[in-house]
Amino acid sequence: MFLFVSCGYKSKFEAFQACEEWASKQEDIYLESYDLVKGYQVSRYGTAECRKDGKDTRKILGLKLNRTNYGSEKSPVGDFKYNQLIFADENYKVIKRFSY
């Protein structure tokens, strides 16, 4: 009897690269900030990121902000001073898993 198990990617590095490629294709979020010299500015930030899933698993997690509105350059969704609230861990959802 044979048990065939597919591990996905051959290495952690390859799994992480695949996750980074996936994350780069996700939407961006636009936040507004105020600078005393430059005035109001809009900055773009990625909404997806990659993290290792615990220390005993062989998976990289593709996480994405759990939001429906990411705004646009002309109409940002929030103020940069609240970025710690926007990008808090509890606001991310696992979308994809990259096994190695």
Q: What are the main properties of this structure?
A:
100 residues, 6 strands, elongated, three-stranded mixed β-sheet, alpha+beta, three-stranded antiparallel β-sheet, 17% helix
Which stretches of 5+ consecutive residues score pLDDT under 50?
none
Whole-number average pLDDT? 91
Number of strands: 6
- Biggest sheet statistics: 3 strands, mixed
Question: Could you explain the architecture of this structure?
Answer:
The protein is built from two helices and six strands. The chain has 100 residues and is of the alpha+beta class. The radius of gyration is 17 Å and the shape is elongated. The two termini are 24 Å apart. The mean pLDDT is 91.
In short:
The protein is an alpha+beta fold and 100 residues long. It has helices spanning 12-24, 83-86, and strands spanning 28-35, 39-46, 48-52, 59-65, 78-79, 92-99.
List the helices and strands and how they pair.
Layout: H1 12-24, E1 28-35, E2 39-46, E3 48-52, E4 59-65, E5 78-79, H2 83-86, E6 92-99
Parallel strand pairs: 1-5
Antiparallel strand pairs: 1-2, 3-4, 4-6
